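WARN  no MSA supplied for this record, continuing single-sequence
INFO  ligand: NAP
INFO  echoing inputs
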Amino acid sequence: MTMEAIHQAIIDGADADALAALPLPDTMRAAVVRKDDIDMFADRPTEDKDPRESLRIDEVPIPPLGPNEVLIAPMASALNYNTVWTSIFEPLSTFGFLERFGRESELGARHDLPYHIVGSDAAAVVLQVGPGVTQWRPGDRVTVHCNYVDLESPEGHMDSMLDPSQRIWGFETNFGGLADIAMVKANQLMPMPDHLTWEEAASLGLVLATSYRMLVSRNGAPMKQGDIVLIWGATGGLGGFATQLVLNGGGIPVCVVSSEEKAQLLRDVGVEHIIDRKAEGYRFETADGEPDYDEMRRFGKRIRQMVGQDPDIVFEHPGRTTFGASVLVCKRGGTIVTCASTSGYLHEYDNRHLWMRLKRIIGSHFANYDEAWQANRLGDLGMIHPILSKVYPLEQAAQGAYEMHHNLHAGKIGILVGAPEEGLGVQNQEAREQHLAGITAYRDLG
Ligand code: NAP
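INFO  complex generated
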């Protein structure tokens, strides 16, 4: 049986028994980074490290299925910045994660391979379930969250993100979503929203759940009605969903972007307060590389002019270039919630601005099972909308990663894996019309 035939059976709506009976091929297409290539960019600055040289489509074996695991056929996936990190081998090679996993257990050893199949999102169909799986069966249409954890340690029992063995699927594990067949734990699966296409459903996953934990969950900086929320990168993957969550929850977003086109996207979804950081020329560092507090104050003044007060919450992820400003402009008693450091992870800020004004910094990382499930449910209810700007076939995943590395995209970049074209997979047209009518097309910016 070929993968093409399996994909066709899915598109034709083959039933569970027919899908379960399909023999799997020995190999499949997968977007991989190879261990042999780890040093290929050693002499280049970050911006010149090109995912198009390191992220390849290879034919690789189908992973062997273990207990409580599921083999799925991703019909679509989406790119995340973690695939950029893997493919430029920064801040470190992800093969180190796979080697460590390999030393842990017999099942972990399957992941320690000379290639890394990447991808932390998928909208997929279940093909085979391993021993012990009770809730899912072949033919189920699913989305996948990337919280990969065994929960043997008590630390994770209240919040699975606190388990010391917690990993991000497709980044710290092998067999991710940018492949014809992916392997997941059964507890990563969630029902696919039936009004969305494969590529739309796949695009909600990682960044929506991350933003949910940061802004809605008690584990982040739970926003309340009327809160002013400063959102960096407000039309990026995280920021595009953060903006929707703030609007849904009765907050007032102050959105930072870097072009008029992106500002217009935000106006179209009802955002009133937008700062174009490029047009207004903010740079929070002097020519000598010292923090420029006058410039940070100018930024703070601008926010006050717009909304009459300092932000209750700052949604942080750019890191080194913005963190000092985020701490300074945050309201007395307010919260800076951070999940990343795209521009550099060694931050400098004046700690007097934090302690004298009783601010808090909260570190946040992906989402626990419940947060991921609740975020997926918001997509299912039509309360959160996909923000795809581009869709590429699997063969061009590296081009998408290049664009993401150079901030040439908006929202999410979808990747078609089993789906031969865009627009497939919708099962509830009526709900689609109801939920997505009039929604701005990020596609215009692609
Ligand atoms: P993205 O789609 O590339 O969006 C990032 C946005 O940040 C861009 O749209 C850009 O917007 C803005 N930005 C980039 N560099 C900036 C800078 N120096 N100063 C100010 N703004 C800047 O990426 P993403 O998916 O949102 O992810 C962002 C970061 O979060 C990545 O580092 C990623 O690895 C991390 N992340 C972490 C988690 C976690 O669980 N810990 C989860 C998801 C993502 P403008 O140019 O329009 O301002």
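Residues 80-82, 206-207, 210, 232-233, 235-239, 256-258, 262, 277, 317-318, 321-322, 339-340, 342-343, 365-366, 404, 407 surround NAP (CB under 6 Å).
INFO  checksum written, moving to next record
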